[in-house]
Amino acid sequence: MDGVLVDSEPIYFEVERSSFAHFGAPMTEEEHHTYVGVTLESMWRQVLDRHQLTNTLEEALAYHRKNVMQTITAYEGLMAIDGLERWLDWLREKGIPIAVASSSPRSLIDLIMEKTGLGRYFDIRITGEEVSQGKPAPDIFLYAAELLGIAPDHCIVIEDSRNGVHAAKSAGMRCIGLHNPGSGQQDLSKADHRISSYDDLWALKESLPFGE
Question: Which superkingdom is the protein from (predicted)?
Fold first, then answer.
């Protein structure tokens, strides 16, 4: 979802920076970018450990979740990434099932789906909270395939993060890496295709293995 359906990562970076500062964790840009695509719980476990903070995981999560929800609720400019809805309309016309598989909490997924109007495309919405291991483990994508009723090797994942690409490939799925500057310097080299926009993906659509 984040960085693939909506360009929300820059918003999260700002919220995360303020949350890191609140708990006294000095954060380099390089370290910050390693957390793109992982669950909030995983991110905060790592931050608390790396920076030897005395706060509990529950305290960090509660503060951060409140911070994120308040920021996104108040944010007026949230919208679908350019060219996305043409692509989603085409998938729907072809009868190709789609799902959101995001590391974000369900409350945030539902809020963003509502604010952007993208909710009408995604009946299946899966969060990192519903699986035992978040990205870069493949669990969330394997669960998505199960709910869609599609074999993993017949699934295509669009990802903007290194963690997400690794999760998709570990799940045995084809992966399209979307270079989104708002998601930081992400290594998408393991993806099967790499694109910079949905116009690039539109040009590829007839070569993708939907008929297999």
Answer: Bacteria
CA distance 137 to 210: 25
Per-residue pLDDT tens over the stretch 99-109: 999 988 899 99
Give the type of residue at 188: L
Omega before residue 181 within 30° of 0, cis:
no
Mean pLDDT of 1-14: 91
- What's the gap between Cα 171 and its chain centre? 16
3-state secondary structure at position 168: helix
Read off φ and ψ for residue 109, nearest 5 degrees: -55, -50
CA atoms of 86 and 122, how far apart (whole Å): 15
pLDDT one-digit tens code per residue, 150-176: 999 999 999 999 999 999 999 999 999
Do 41 and 57 touch, CB atoms closer than 8 A?
Answer: yes
How far apart CA 81 and CA 179 sit, in angstroms, is 12
Say how far apart CA 20 and CA 133 lie, in whole Å.
23
